[in-house]
Amino acid sequence: MALPAQAQVNVSLDRYSIAPADTVQLTLEVDQRAAQRPDFSPLTRDFHFLGSKQMTVSSHSNGNNQYTTRWRVLLRPRHSGELQIPPLQINNEQSTPLLLSVAGDKSSTAAINRDSFLESNVDTSELYINSQLLYSQRLYHRAELPPMANFSEPLIEHANTIALGETNRYSTQLKGETYQVIEKNYAIFPEQTGQLTIPAATFSAGPGIAELQSEAFSIDVLPQANQKKKGYWLPSSQVSITDNWQRPDTITPATPITRQITISATGLPAAALPALMPLRNELASIEVTDVSLSQEYSSKGVISSRTETILITPLERGEITLPEIRIPWWNITKDRAEQSIINPIILRVEAGSKLTSGQTQAAEATPPLTSEITATDGSALSSSKTVVTSAHEDLNQQTVPAQPAPDNSHFLIWLLTAIAVISALGWLYSYAALRRLKQQLDTDGSQTVEEEVELSAILPQHFSDDDDFNYDAAELLKVELAERDAFQAALSACEQNMALEARLLMLEWGRQFWPEIEINSSIDLSDICNSKTLDLLLIDMENHIDGTETDYWSGDLLAEALDKIREKQLSKRFELS
């Protein structure tokens, strides 16, 4: 289908006068979604074609969606002179030609005939916020550098700059001369939208010697793309998930199972990777025992990973359903939303008694390709590794297009109803169980004073000696696990930056931790904790929920504050016991 008019195909250069060794960036724009890639072959007559990048920019105005498809092409001239950017064909239209002036041999030779010169490069002039920009500095020199020589480091405001490994040193040939090269490479992650300025790199050989200076760069930083599935923002060229297991063939209550989940991303720092494993389950205790972050550096920039080691302990016989893990991310290469997924897993727990550490065997086990994992009888242990990744080039990798977000109102109604029902049933069950235990223990007097003191410390204060109750370890363990699971669920919501879910789960944890106090809002929780830090964090959370604050909410500080408050409260209870 032809474009409406030729005037809607626009081309421009970032510079119109360069030296022969420089690069120039050509931008071609079409004010709609393009049906096909432009034909760039006419450029190769006068230029080296160094690569291209496509991006679709969308905007909403007067009730209409408007789209612009943009190509960025990096070129280096084959010779000096007045070079023409020829008309480029896209669909049935052509762009207008442009002229580029490339300095002649005289000025070029004068620059290269010096003992040293400095150049710098970026891989793009436009990118999304928090995505990776590759920046390099190269010093070419023929003479030995003096001891006081100094190579500047990039100081860039509103950006996270990471040096990519050690400084590279090598030799190269230019105009028949051998030059020694000192090369430094960086990954830059802009932290706000608008114009990002990379100042000129400088090299000083010492006092009284003129400095060498490269060009400065101005980079356009775009806001987050419009993702249908809301959540964290992960702009990357590739994201993958690895799922490893260690468990016995036969799963029984109290038998520990180890799961290790790793998310890897190209072009993101490790600190930007999200938490993975949901920690709330009615039939199992789930605990993250270790979180490991790592970063590696290559020609593609930063390659990072986050590995979570999770201990799953079944509490009773039945089927434990571990929900799917769905990681939405933005493919900056194809400029579209994608998701990496681990399917739901079912663990079948057979009847049996609690095993001691000497009886527990652990080994790697293979989850089937289906979403159900069934433990069967037998002594042999098997091992495997399940990988789900979003790279399209690998047929074994799985990429799922972003799905429309569900109706939030139905989800909230379901979540509130579920919390209310679970809380009511839980306290009715606890009350009945404790009454039965009191009657039983009053007759046999089997529990020691030492056990009462130790276990009462982990309970809320109204469950201590004031009610003249006695408990056994099994029932106390259930109460403790219920509170811990609720707390872990609240922390997980905070770490995944889900403000509304964090508030609901945080209040549910508060009701379990202080059951003698009525907690219906963040204000109630703030009054109990008496923490100014928590007060400010709760106000910030509420402002994001009601829309007063429209920027991105980060819950890591709230999670840290809640963890400190809980730890302090538990310490007090142990002292009182």
Structure description:
- The N and C termini lie far apart (79 Å).
- Helix 2 packs parallel to helix 5, helix 6 packs antiparallel against helix 7 and helix 7 crosses helix 8.
- The chain has 8 helices and 32 strands.
- Strands 10, 12, 14, 15 and 16 form a 5-stranded antiparallel sheet that branches. The protein has a 5-stranded antiparallel sheet with strand order 24-25-23-22-31, covered by helices on one side. Strands 1-3-5-4 form a 4-stranded antiparallel sheet, with no helix packed on it.
- It is elongated.
- A hairpin with a 2-residue loop joins strand 15 (168-174) and strand 16.
- The chain is α+β, with helices and mostly antiparallel strands.
- The protein is 23% helix and 35% strand.
- The protein has 4 domains: 1-104, Immunoglobulin-like; 114-223, Sandwich (Immunoglobulin-like), CATH 2.60.40; 235-401, no CATH class; 408-576, no CATH class.
Quickly list its features.
alpha+beta; 4 domains; 32 strands; Immunoglobulin-like; 5-stranded antiparallel sheet; 8 helices; about 575 residues
Draw up the topology in text.
Blueprint: E1 9-13, E2 17-18, E3 24-30, E4 47-61, E5 64-77, E6 81-85, E7 89-90, E8 93-94, E9 98-102, H1 105-112, E10 116-122, E11 126-128, E12 133-141, E13 150-151, E14 159-163, E15 168-174, E16 177-190, E17 194-198, E18 202-204, E19 212-213, E20 217-222, E21 235-236, E22 238-246, E23 257-266, E24 284-298, E25 301-314, E26 318-322, E27 325-331, E28 336-342, E29 345-349, E30 372-373, E31 385-389, E32 400-401, H2 408-444, H3 449-456, H4 473-495, H5 499-513, H6 522-529, H7 532-546, H8 556-576
Parallel strand pairs: 2-9, 11-20, 21-27, 29-30
Antiparallel strand pairs: 1-3, 3-5, 4-5, 6-9, 7-8, 10-12, 12-16, 13-18, 14-16, 15-16, 17-20, 18-19, 22-23, 22-31, 23-25, 24-25, 26-29, 27-28, 28-32
Helix pairs in contact: 2-5, 4-5, 4-8, 6-7, 7-8
